[in-house]
Amino acid sequence: MQLKLAILAIAIAATPALAYPTGEQFDQDALANDGGGGIAFDGSPRWANHTCEVCHTGAPHLISLALDADHPELFTDGWVAGKQYHLRVVLLGEWAGLQYTANGSDCGQIDATPFKPCNDNGFALELDGGNDQPTGTLAPVVGNACSATPPADPITYFAKDGAALHEQRNGRTSWDLCWTAPAAGAGTITAYLAVVDGNGGTGSAAFPNDTVNDDVAAGAVPLAEAGAPPPPQVGGCNAAGDGAGLGVALVILLAIKRRRLVAGLALAAAASACVHVRPRQRETLAHRNMTFAPDPAEDELDLHMQESREGSSGGYGSSGGGCGCN
């Protein structure tokens, strides 16, 4: 079976190897072993906030995602030191590749005639502390319970660097794992997660797992430490109107699901995730090529014509500085 991960580390055009590393290959060198290089592009700062769209290009952004927990107070009251949480990553609104779900485990066999495409979906998740590095401990779920021993045929794979990612299963839209919170004093922890809704590739043995036009959603959920001040909201981007660039809606769902899982925060991504730009990064917005009209003389002429013909003025912006203070 061809394996398709929700995150793809490095696209290799020079080798005839498969487009996606398996879970076991993920930590291996990308060039030498067709691995993922250990890089999970889930939107975390340590990978420059890159998401699955590094490789999965042309996503129409029609899907969304949710992070569920068996203890909903994780999202309201914060995490408790040393406590274990049963988490579930959910792909919402799956549409791409649905027609291939019926192929089941028979899909992706290169030697089969005719070739049967896969409805491959996947995810990536990591929980980072203030140093932008994974914190806490991840463990698999076996028989609806947290386990220290991974199953022989894992659904969720854990990378050596502390991230969790998907071991492909045809048609899967949810993935379970356990997270044990770190010792007290770690402060706010952010869950960075991304999902990919695969469209089945080109439907041929030559390109069973291409990365074009798969759908992608990503987001970040801040988790305060219990007893500490709540973290700032990660929303705030405008998702209204046609062609809205970025949007993340945070909705607290308190409906109890099966297996005692309670939906925590659903990230309905209108496009990709909202990312708050840090002050030291905002100097980019003050570059000349970031202005709508870089010619100040033309701006002055337009403003003069507006004042003369319409009796109004303004709407042409204001000065800016590289410090990001405005």
Any overview of this molecule?
A 6-stranded antiparallel sheet has the order 4-9-2-1-13-12. Strands 7-8-3-10-11 form a 5-stranded antiparallel sheet. Strands 5-6 form a two-stranded antiparallel ribbon. It is built from 3 helices and 13 strands. 7% of the residues lie in helices and 23% in strands. Residues 1-20, 234-265, 267-274 and 318-326 have low confidence and may be disordered. The termini are far apart. The protein has 2 domains: 30-276, Immunoglobulin-like, CATH 2.60.40.4060; 280-326, no CATH class.
How do the strands and helices of this protein lay out in sequence?
Elements: H1 30-33, E1 64-69, H2 73-76, E2 84-92, E3 121-128, E4 137-139, E5 141-142, E6 145-146, E7 156-158, E8 164-166, E9 174-180, E10 189-197, E11 215-223, E12 248-252, E13 262-269, H3 296-310
Antiparallel strand pairs: 1-2, 1-13, 2-9, 3-8, 3-10, 4-9, 5-6, 7-8, 10-11, 12-13
